[in-house]
Amino acid sequence: MKYSSPLLLTSLALAASTLLPSCVASKKYDDLRARQTATEEAKADVERQQRQAVAELKKASDELAELRLTNRRLVDDSTQTGTALRRTRTLYNQLTDSYDKLLKNSDRAMADKSADYNKVAKDLARREAELGELDASLQKTNADLKAREAKVAELQQALAAKDKAVNDLKAKVSNALLSFKASDLQVKMKDGKVYVSLSEQLLFKSGSTKVDPKGQEALKKLATVLQEQRDVNVVVEGHTDNVPIVKGTQGMQDNWDLSVLRATEISRLLTAGGVAPERITASGRSQYLPVSKNDTPANKALNRRTEIILTPKLDELFKILDTNSTSEAK
After folding, report:
1. CATH number, span 177-325
2. Lowest mean pLDDT among 69-78, 164-173, 196-205, 276-285
3. For residue 160, what pLDDT band results from cuts at 50, 70 and 90?
4. For the chain, which residues make up each domain, given as ranges?
5. CB 280, CB 218: distance < 8 Å
6. What is the rounded CA–CA span in Å between residue 185 and residue 179?
7. DSSP 8-state symbol, 112
8. Model-level pTM?
9. Using CB atoms within 10 A of its CB, is residue 126 exposed (0-12), middle (13-18) or buried (19+)?
10. What is the CA radius of gyration of the chain?
């Protein structure tokens, strides 16, 4: 819509004033003036509305652009969300398959573990039973060991008592026979026994079975000691050298007879001195147990001897050993 400029209106108004009467002209002028004012106000209002419309259009355009951008973003987000959803579903399916496999494997493993556990439990029960048997056996062994230790202690005590008895016996015999020469009489201890070795020179003349007075004195002193030692057994052994006896010697054929007869004679003298005969054993060893070679007169003299072997009775010791043997047999 086009509007006239104020100058044009003014010109028209002047022209009208010359042509029309003054009153009419004045009224029309006022009308025109009013119209002009209204027109200017309408124009200003229209311009204002136009500016407002332009501003609103710009705002709407900006909002449209933003909406389009948001729409594109939403489309992009929707695409990404769909992709992520499909990926998530794939992963879910894979996890489900894995879980099913793990569950199956777990069931199988549990079954295997259960079988292994049962086997281990059986082995453990068997071993516990074996351990119980071993423990019982060990307790029995310990009891047997303690019993044996007690027997050993008892045996050691008996042996110690026996050794003491032998030492005491040797001391008493040695003291009783101190007056005799060492070359004629020796007292020694061997293998838990006391040996009284008497030379032929002290006891007998060559080839004789009768004891000389000096020898009888020695035997009496020995018998006195043995009377007090009632728990001592006595073995009398006759020994000779390797020289044969003179043929025709009464009652003898060889050195066997000579050694036995001499041992028997000494046994009689000990019995006469008070030693119980049941404690004495007489034996002859002839020439077969020499203490030296029969190569010189001096060595032969050493072999011509009588040995009186004194052995403490070991009844208590044998009793302990017999009890121990019986226990072991059981």
Report:
1. 3.30.1330.60
2. 69-78
3. confident
4. 177-325
5. no
6. 10
7. H
8. 0.54
9. exposed
10. 75
